[in-house]
Structure formats: structure tokens, C-alpha cells
Specification:
Elements: H1 2-6, E1 19-24, E2 27-32, E3 45-48, E4 54-62, E5 69-77, E6 91-95, E7 128-132, E8 141-148, E9 155-158, E10 169-174, E11 183-187, H2 197-206, E12 211-214, H3 225-232, H4 258-264, E13 276-280, E14 285-289, H5 305-316, E15 321-325, H6 342-350, E16 355-358, E17 364-367, E18 383-387, E19 405-409, E20 414-421, E21 424-431, E22 440-444
Parallel strand pairs: 11-12, 14-15, 15-16, 16-18
Antiparallel strand pairs: 1-10, 2-4, 3-9, 4-8, 5-7, 5-10, 6-8, 11-20, 13-14, 17-18, 17-19, 20-21, 21-22
Helix pairs in contact: 3-4, 5-6
Length: 446
């Protein structure tokens, strides 16, 4: 426990308390294309399927909101029957509110009044599932949604009449949090005096608030004190006061990474170790930073000093959601992934960590949630990102696409913006000016 405390940074100032407003559905029913004039409200369930189309509709009366909306979730629970699950849980879209659950039919169904929001690809029976509907909630008033699917394997949800406690609910979170306590701005492989690209990525940081995660290889070539002074300080160094760094392999080209630890000071964790943790989002998120240069710290194997510290830190963590970052990846389509980090990944997986951020490869890559052995695991897996796009150079080639790799780009510099919400995270890659690469999404905490 002493080691855990010694390597834990002071927690940033907490966010203002978040208020959760829960609204049960005031109306809900579904319609069916094969019977376009039939009302199914008496069925006491909500069905979402395709071929034939079966679309569910819900309405909520939102009242009492006095603070800004931070996040909103449509919560649905599947029936406790084997047919309730589906490989496609549906897509939610806002609709007009002038419909009645006792008369609505497929022929009279309301039209969408906005684009569909984040889908749920797979649902299990007797399980709660959350749809992100933040962008559809504007304030107090009646709000209505439709849920549709193109998959023939239908999903079956509780209606409000079938089970009031398990029926649909709209959860709206309000408050005025410190924005810099809910956002991580991440990239690695950053500053080199021979290029101005790190100035371009620094300009992205200039326009964003949040904690800056500099994920290793921060000052080329050797992480020497003079390189930090001449190359890093004028660009990313503008944001030193809000930076929580991870050490990379280039830093150790200076003995004991003395330039790195000297420049970042206490923010880099204890010298000779380089691992530490801190909290964000008012304590709702825990952040773990590790040292991936295993040969310099007694190894990264199970039972190594860092691995023991990591397991103790995660066991002491009371936050629901956790993100970790270190420099070199375990999985990578661009090569240079190393199995040396599997014990660390295993510790994250065992503790239910949601997200891992890496760099080292001068590329962007996003993986689906997976196990330490690379098996897809949408329920408990760790979602890994590689963001080696901080400015040094780019590597456009991906020789062998790794299992579970979802998105890859080796031609654009930029920064990943990771937003930490109650029970959820959102990511968006922000390219430098003049370059285009749109990549964003949402994930739920375990």
C-alpha cells in the first residue's frame, strides 16, 4: 500500500456534483410492416427487427432541468427469454411526439426528425442496455424516439406496461463540470527540432481544454535536457502544467531518462519508476500511467515491481471506469507490438479496465475490446488505441492487420480527444489543420 500511495499524484480539483434525472416512459409501443394497420400496444413488449420491419416508439416528459446537460442515455432492458437477445439491438432516432400508443400503426408511424444516434450491435436476454441520446436532448419538454433494426434477428425489450421497474427510462445527467477534468488529449512520438509538425499538433491542444497525455518519445532523439528546452518546450511545452506524461524508449537514450524526469518533475512519477495514477471526472474515472521500457525497471513480467504496483493500484481503485496508457503497444498492425506487455494487459483485463492508450508506432489505430491473448471480448475486453501521431513522423504502412483492428490511418498527424462521462467514454481523433481524418465513437464502462 505504501508503494501505491507514493506513486499516486494529487487528484485534480473535482468536478461539480453531477445530478442524475430519471424519466420513465410516458408512452411506448411498436409497429410492424407486415401488418401496417394493426396497433400492437396490447402485446406489452417492444420489438426491434428488420424484414419485416418492426419499429418501437417511446416518449418521455423531461422536466426540472436547470443546469447544462452533460449526457443522456436511453435505458432499455431485454426480456428474460432466449429469443430476446439479438446481434443487432437497434438504432435510435428522434421522432415527432404527436402520436398515441393506443392507435399508432406502421402506416401512421412518425417520421424521423434527426439522424440516428449511437447503435447497440448486440444485446443479451435479461440485460440492461444503454443508448447514447445526448445529442437529441435539448432541455425540458416531451421527447420521442424510434428504435429500428435491419437485422431479421429481433430484439425484445420490456415495455412500461409489462414491467414498470424494467421499462424504458431516460437518464439525463446535468451539472457544470470542470471541462479540463473530463477530457484527455493524447498522442505520442512528438517533438523534433528538425520538423514543425509538433507545432501543428500543439496548435490542436491550444484550442482544447483537458489533461494532456504525452505518451512517450516526447523529445527526439534522446530526450536530452537540451532537446526538451529547444524542441519540446516551445510547442507541447506550452501545456506542461496540465501534462501527465508517459516515458518512451527514446527518453532512455539519455541514461536513466534523466532529461525526461528532470523536465516533467513530479508529474512523471517517481524517478527510476515512471508509473503513477490519478483520478478524473470528479473521481468517476481512474487513470493509470505505466513505463513500458521494461529493461530499465526490473521487467514487465508478472510479479515485477511495476506489475505488482499496478494490481495493487487497480484493487484500491474505487472508480467505476478506468483508462491506462503507456508508450509501446501489445497489439499493432504496423509491427513493433511486443508480448512483453501481456502481463500488464492481463492486469488491466482482470480489473475491468476500459481503455488503453499507446503510441510508438507513428500511426493511428483503434481496436475492438479484446482479451490479453487477442480474442474479441465486447463485454469485458480492453479497447486499445495507438496514437503515435504527435508530430515526429508518420508510418503509412500496416504490414499485417491484427485481429480486432477496426480503424487504421498512417497519413495524418493529430491528437485523440477522449471524453470521460458517467459510465461512458467518447473518442474523436482531431487532425492538424489542413489534414482530414474523421474517426469518432462511444464506448460504455464495464
Amino acid at each position: 500500500m505504501v508503494a501505491v500511495l507514493a506513486a499516486t499524484l494529487v487528484t485534480p480539483a473535482p468536478a461539480q456534483a453531477v445530478t442524475t434525472h430519471v424519466y420513465p416512459a410516458t408512452r411506448d409501443t411498436y409497429v410492424k410492416a407486415s401488418s401496417p394497420n394493426t396497433n400492437y400496444n396490447s402485446q406489452r413488449q417492444l420489438v426491434v427487427a428488420g424484414s419485416p420491419d418492426q419499429v418501437s416508439y417511446l416518449a418521455f416528459a423531461v422536466t426540472g432541468l436547470t443546469e447544462p446537460i452533460l449526457h443522456a442515455t436511453l435505458r432499455m432492458k431485454t426480456l428474460d427469454t432466449s429469443i430476446a437477445g439479438s446481434t443487432d439491438g437497434g438504432r435510435v432516432f428522434p421522432v415527432g411526439s404527436s402520436w398515441s400508443e393506443t392507435t399508432l400503426t406502421y402506416a401512421t408511424r412518425p417520421a424521423p426528425i434527426g439522424p440516428s444516434v449511437t447503435p447497440i450491435e448486440r444485446v443479451k436476454p435479461d440485460t440492461i442496455h444503454d443508448f447514447d441520446v445526448t445529442h437529441a436532448i435539448r432541455g425540458n419538454g416531451v421527447v420521442s424516439f424510434g428504435i429500428f433494426s435491419t437485422h431479421t434477428d429481433g430484439a425484445y425489450y420490456h415495455s412500461r406496461e409489462n414491467n414498470e421497474a424494467a421499462g424504458p427510462a431516460l437518464l439525463v445527467y446535468t451539472g457544470v463540470p470542470r471541462t479540463d477534468d473530463t477530457v484527455i488529449l493524447a498522442a505520442g512520438d512528438i517533438a523534433d527540432c528538425r520538423t514543425e509538425r509538433d507545432e501543428q499538433t500543439a496548435k490542436v491542444l491550444d484550442t482544447e481544454v483537458g489533461v494532456v497525455a504525452a505518451i512517450g518519445d516526447t523529445a527526439y532523439e534522446k530526450g536530452a535536457p537540451e532537446e526538451y528546452a529547444a524542441c519540446y518546450a516551445p510547442t507541447w511545452g506550452r501545456h506542461k502544467s496540465r501534462t501527465r506524461p508517459a516515458v518512451g524508449n527514446h527518453e532512455y537514450l539519455t541514461p536513466n531518462a534523466a532529461g525526461y524526469f528532470g523536465y516533467f518533475g513530479a508529474a512523471a512519477g517517481p524517478p527510476g519508476q515512471g508509473w503513477y495514477s490519478y483520478n478524473m471526472a470528479g473521481g468517476q474515472w481512474h487513470v493509470v500511467v505505466l513505463n513500458s521500457i521494461c529493461g530499465q525497471i526490473g521487467g514487465c513480467h508478472a510479479g515485477s515491481p511495476q506489475e505488482r504496483w499496478l494490481r495493487a493500484d487497480l484493487a484500491a481503485n474505487k472508480a467505476r471506469c478506468t483508462v491506462a496508457y503507456w508508450h509501446q503497444p501489445l497489439f499493432a498492425s504496423g509491427g513493433r507490438g511486443s508480448s512483453a506487455y501481456r502481463p500488464l494487459f492481463q492486469a488491466l483485463y482482470d480489473a475491468g479496465v476500459e481503455v488503453l492508450l499507446n503510441a510508438h508506432n507513428h500511426q493511428y489505430e483503434r481496436f475492438a475490446p479484446q482479451t490479453p491473448t487477442g480474442a474479441a471480448d465486447p463485454d469485458r475486453g480492453v479497447r486499445q488505441f495507438i496514437i503515435g501521431t504527435g508530430g515526429r513522423s508518420l508510418q503509412p504502412d500496416f504490414p499485417t492487420v491484427a485481429a480486432n483492428s477496426e480503424v487504421r490511418n498512417g497519413n495524418v498527424f493529430g491528437v485523440l480527444r477522449l471524453t470521460l462521462l458517467p459510465g461512458e467514454y467518447r473518442w474523436r481523433f482531431m487532425p492538424v489543420a489542413g489534414q482530414t481524418f474523421n474517426e469518432m465513437g462511444t464506448g460504455l464502462c464495464h
